[in-house]
Amino acid sequence: MKPIACDVLVIGAGAAGLMCALTAGQRGRMVQVIDHANKVGKKILMSGGGRCNFTNTGTTPANFLSANPHFCKSALARYTPWHFIEMVERHGIAYHEKELGQLFCDISSKQIVRMLMDECQAAGVQVRTDCGVTKVERGSDGFHVTTAQGQFHAASLVVATGGLSIPSLGASGFGYELARQFGHEVLPTRAGLVPLTLSGKHQERFNDRSGVALPITARCNDVAFSNSMLITHRGISGPAILQISSFWQPGDDLRLDLLPGQDAEGWLRAMKRDRGAAELRTVLSEVLPRRLALRLCEHWLPDRPVKQIDEPQLREAAALLQGFPLVASGTEGYRTAEVTLGGVDTRKVSSSTFESQLVPGLHFVGEVLDVTGWLGGYNFQWAWASGHAAGQVV
Question: Hey, how many other C-beta atoms are within 10 angstroms of the C-beta on 15?
């Protein structure tokens, strides 16, 4: 059977792959997109509770983790959230800001996938699903790719295969294997934006408090995030915890401010002065979820009337409330992680074209690279920006 010839072959029909394909197609390039999954954009579809947090209006390079922090600057500057918003509005997709610059579809994430597919179709891009890759070779005339649907021959090859997060959606390490095949280094990977697990005493003491949620500030390794936390059967989750998980590793000191924005010491003094006869658990239940306040007073704080708490104990209680030392044992892993930290080392990839510096015509975009965004639409913006940058040159 004769190989399918094209100018550009994109492996991966996710956010970065589709953006790259439609951008290249709009330049008149013949583009084929292949994906081993049975449908396109699976991660887009499930994101944001099915409403897709498609970008963040406050995106800056500071919102990304990478061993090479300057790498993301060029692409992010050239394709901003406003460029993507313009396309969303052109397709008549209603959206809203939830918090902190996070934009979501009003109706469904299916609209974002439909928009990308409509743009691909208008640009003459062909997209094939159920098309797993078995072999990739490079000859003098370009790339020869063997798949479940026959052979492809392309001048340019774009690897947009994502990371290891959520294997149930088809995530695999294929992109990393391909990078290594062509001489690229892959930096160690781990789960990011992921719930943390507890064990031992912390797990015993919090296990029956699952479902309790509260605003906190989580601190680890000189980084802090303020948002909500949710206690689960296995540990802790919620936006503040998912954010800090990307900066935490086993053994690291993790502190939770349970009264963010308040002066715990000043508050305790006021309680001692004005409501001395009240039990600490009673006044604490007015500023924290009651079930949590009771548990704290059972194990960590003085369980007595506030007037009986002496000065050293008061300072100690305040320090605990504003820097609760939570000993996490690990994470829930790739199964529930929203992103993969680490990936293809960017030092051998052009920050303007996303082309390999080792293999002409080979490009890497999106999550397969060692660039990981915070929670809140940043990773989608990276997918759009990196895909667009590569799509302009392939």
Answer: 30
